[in-house]
Structures are given as C-alpha cells and as structure tokens.
Write a structure and sequence with these properties.
alpha/beta; Maf protein; five-stranded mixed β-sheet; 36% helix; 20% strand; disordered N terminus
Length: 217
Amino acid sequence: MPVLMGLGPRDVICRTGVEFHSHPLGVRLSFQERSLVREYWKRYYPHWQIRCPCPAARLVGLLQRKNLSLAVAESCSGGGISSAITDVPGASSVFWGGAVAYSAEAKVSLLGVDRTKLPSGCVGADLSSGMAELLRQRYKVDLGLAVTGALGPDTPAPQISVGEVYIAVAGRGHTAVRRFNFCGDRQTIKKAVIAAGINFLLTYCARWYVAGPVQMD
C-alpha cells in the first residue's frame, strides 16, 4: 500500500458539501521521489482531507512534532474550531488562542482589519486571507487560521449564498484560502465548517511542513 509522507491512502478523502467521498485520483499512485510528493500536494492538497478518529488530536500532535504555534480567528464557526482543539489534552503547548470576530467591528478592533476593505456582508476570500495574515503578524505565531461565511437562513449580502464559507491558513510565507459551499440548516453548516477548518489545517501542514516547499525550476 503506497504511503504519502506517512499518510496512507485510506486517510485521504475529498469533501463535497457535507458528504465524504473517496477521491477518484491519487489513492493508487506510487511516488518514488520526494519531489513528486511535493508536486502532488501542491496540486491536490486544497481538495483533500485527512480522515482519522479525532482530527483535532491529529492536528495537535502534528503541531507538537513540528514545534508550530497556532492562532484562530473565527466568524461563522463561532469558536467551534478553538473548542475542538482545546478539547485535546496538551493543546496549550501549540495553541496560542482564538478570537470570535463575529461582527464587522470585532474584525476591526480585535484583528486590525482595515474598515475600508471590509466587503459587503463581511464574507470573502480576501477577507479570510487578510485575517489569517494579521493573526500571524499581530500575535507572532507560526500559523493563523481565519473563517468567514454565511450560516443562514438569511444571507448577509445579496451576492453571498447560504453555506458559502471561506477558510484561510497563513504560514511559512504562503497563504492558502479555499471556498466551501455547504448545505443544510444552520447547525449542520456550522458543524461542517468546524470539521473543514481542522482538516484544512491538517492538509496545509502536510503540504508545507511535512512535504516541504516545492523547488521551482
């Protein structure tokens, strides 16, 4: 059975909405060169998740092994990602803390977001990316994660759909952001956002701190 940087194929899956499905590509691929693994993660990691009994515990363990610190800025997830991480014993060794920046004013006062750059509805890829980067700069941590989105039943702005969520992770000179479109009621979407945030952190760390940076020719 091939192994991708310590992750077996059965640990790697793709998310569509709130359902889990096996990814049609990659699970049977065999990589002989570390550089190929890096290229693989570069291309596919935003679309993959790591499946394990307790993703938060896996994340804390990975951060401990790599000696990485983490801070979180949550909007629509309402502190759920921070709660899941702090449920893990020993999380204090890697988890700096989190802020529930739910309102526009909280994003400005707690994170230092430029008020003039707040998008309508306070949801968007650029906003989530900016929040994650500000976390790293302001609190001197290795990784910053930020979440914005709309849980419903109403939308914060006409151009934003219910279930539209943007999760960003900033670290090691690279910021990754991904758009998710979840379906369901408010609580179902919120649970999906929490799970997606933790798994996105895991895949980001696998790409940038396990596989390492890709050397471009």
